[in-house]
Model the fold of this input.
Amino acid sequence: MQEEIRLAFIPHKDSLFTMAKIQQIFLRLGGPDVIPCYPLWAFCREDEFDSLKSAGACEIMKPDHDGGEYFFPVRIRCGSGTTDLRIVFARGPAEFSGGLSVFPADDLKDFPLRLKSFRTGEVRLKNNGWQLFRDTWVTCAAAKKLPATE
Done:
């Protein structure tokens, strides 16, 4: 496989842990036909990538699917509008037995995840590995306006 450079949205580690927990539940219930996808990052086009740097608010929504692709929708509000991305966490049959309805409501109680910050960066993909470089932390404008807690 040739090396490929892509642009990425990387959630904060707390959000990554929550998504990884949901991914593991989904894989266990989905059986051998469902294949995990890593990393739990969203890959985007250059115009989307540029808009991420002026994020006003960022939310990761409950899992969804489109055919055989299972993902966390990401909605980023910025000065120029809204950017929608997908963090693909699994691929498999278009509808395996149960689909996304297998999740008890309690497992999804934390969604939507409201991020205060996230990273953006360039990713070098080769074979089954990836390397993040030129990464930058982005703090959402909504998080900057939050009152200090005591």
